[in-house]
UniProtKB/TrEMBL annotation:
Main location (coarse class): secreted
Gene Ontology biological-process entries: signal transduction
Disulfide bonds listed in the record: C143-C325
Subcellular location: Secreted
Name of one Pfam family that matches: OLF
GO cellular component, one term: extracellular space
Residues of the signal peptide: 1-22
Protein name: Olfactomedin-like protein 1
Domain of life: Eukaryota
Keywords: Coiled coil, Disulfide bond, Secreted, Signal
Residue ranges annotated for the Olfactomedin-like domain, each copy included: 142-398
InterPro entries attached to this UniProt entry: Olfac-like_dom, Olfactomedin-like_domain
Tagged with keyword Transmembrane helix: no
Origin species: Dissostichus eleginoides
Length: 405
């Protein structure tokens, strides 16, 4: 029943009650009161029902709005899922194509065996090439001598800074002396002979050469009229400079060098170039081998690396080193200066061994060398000792005689 119909019934009822009340009797009055109370209760319940109806209607509207929101979100999620599915499908297609490509590229067992055989041939060829290089170094010259003792000491002069290097060109027939003062500079002093170096003073050298680039450290040498030195501001670059015109003619990078000073007691020298009876060498320290020394044989013409040896000689407490006939001799000292000793050697021919060789002492004088260069012709060491240019006379013997002792 609608609200309007209920109101019509109530109105009719009131009119009827009013009519009965006007005719009046006590019993009728009681009935009328009872009916009025009932009508009042019905009216109150009708109001409550109407309020609940309004509430339910609002909740229904809110629920409908919420469902519409969920449907909208669901549509968005469905679109995203569809997009992801399309992307995954495209990736799967691509993977299938790549797998098909790889399957076509995977060699057969026969191809693998051929590749392995070729690799083995290349390895054997490389090993044979290395053996040929080592054999060539060994037989290039009759080099079977080793150091037996350091006989005498001669202080030639005091010139230049505390650190420096001096040496002669070991080329046959050359008597020129060269001096490089300091740990970084670009000036080379050239003297016609040892006598002219002794008689001259530092203000009037025979010849002053300005190098194209600064050097760093004290590991320079002159060989066949060319100066070889470590270029400043580079970790491992060796320059070759023609001393006739002062121009750079070649350079090379020494693999693995320049990360550690070659000698801990000379922290400014990272590459030490040396010359012996076999030719040109570079000595450096490698942190990957515990800081031990590494020697590299260079071609004097092209500066190409011929071979490299890792030695057991440590760089810690070392102040210098030199080579005689392919054997490295490492000189050790203390950081306060003391009597220099040779405590470690490495022979590339594997004839003499460090653990079988006695410690060799320099003459009784407290020294601190910043450079030591061996001259294979004179059989002398040219050393720089706190600004003093010093010569050590060395005595050599055949390696079979050295090992017998």
């Amino acid at each position: 029943m609608s609200v309007t119909a209920i109101l019509v019934v109530l109105l009719s009822f009131y009119l009827t009650v009013g009519s009965v009340h006007s005719q009046g009797s006590p019993h009728d009055s009681f009935i009328i009161q009872y009916l009025e109370r009932r009508l009042s209760q019905m009216e109150e319940r009708m109001n409550q029902c109407e309020q609940k109806t309004v509430g339910v209607t609002q909740k229904t509207y809110d629920l409908s709005s919420e469902i519409r929101g969920y449907l909208s979100t669901l549509n968005i999620v469905r679109s995203e899922v569809q997009s992801e599915m399309d992307s995954v499908s495209a990736r799967v297609d691509r993977v299938e194509r790549e797998l098909e490509y790889l399957e076509n590229k995977i060699p057969t067992q026969t191809d693998i065996e051929m590749e392995e055989a070729l690799l083995q041939q290349q390895i054997k060829a490389a090993e044979l090439d290395l053996l040929k290089k080592k054999a060539k170094i060994r037989v290039e010259k009759d080099c079977s001598i080793g150091l037996s003792q350091i006989k005498s000491l001669k202080i030639v002069k005091k010139a230049g800074d505390t650190y420096g290097s001096w040496f002669k060109d070991p080329s046959q027939g050359s008597a020129k002396v060269y001096l490089l003062s300091g740990i970084s500079n670009n000036t080379l002093l050239e003297y016609d002979s040892l006598h002219s170096f002794i008689e001259s003073n530092t203000t009037t050298p025979v010849k002053v050469l300005q190098l194209p680039f600064h050097w760093i450290g004290t590991g320079q040498v002159v060989y066949n009229g060319f100066l070889y030195y470590h270029k400043a501001d580079t970790p491992n670059q060796i320059l070759k400079v023609d001393l006739l015109n002062g121009t750079m003619v070649d350079s090379t990078l020494v693999p693995g060098a320049g990360r550690l000073p070659v000698y801990s007691l000379n922290p400014n020298t990272y590459l030490d170039v040396a010359v012996d009876e076999l030719g040109l060498w570079v000595i450096h320290a490698d942190p990957e081998y515990g800081g031990n020394l590494v020697i590299t044989k260079l071609d004097k013409g092209s500066l190409a690396v011929e071979y490299t040896w890792d030695t057991q000689c440590r760089s810690r407490d070392a102040e210098g080193a030199f080579l005689i006939c392919g054997t490295l001799y490492v000189v050790y000292n203390t950081r306060y200066g003391g009597r220099s000793t040779i405590q470690c050697l490495y022979d590339i021919h594997d004839i003499i061994h460090s653990d079988e060789s006695p410690v060799m002492f320099f003459p009784k004088r407290y020294t601190s060398h910043s450079s030591i260069h061996y001259h294979p012709g004179d059989k002398q060491l040219y050393a720089w000792d706190d600004g003093y240019q010093t010569i050590y006379k060395v005595e050599t013997r055949r390696n079979d005689q050295v090992t017998e002792e």
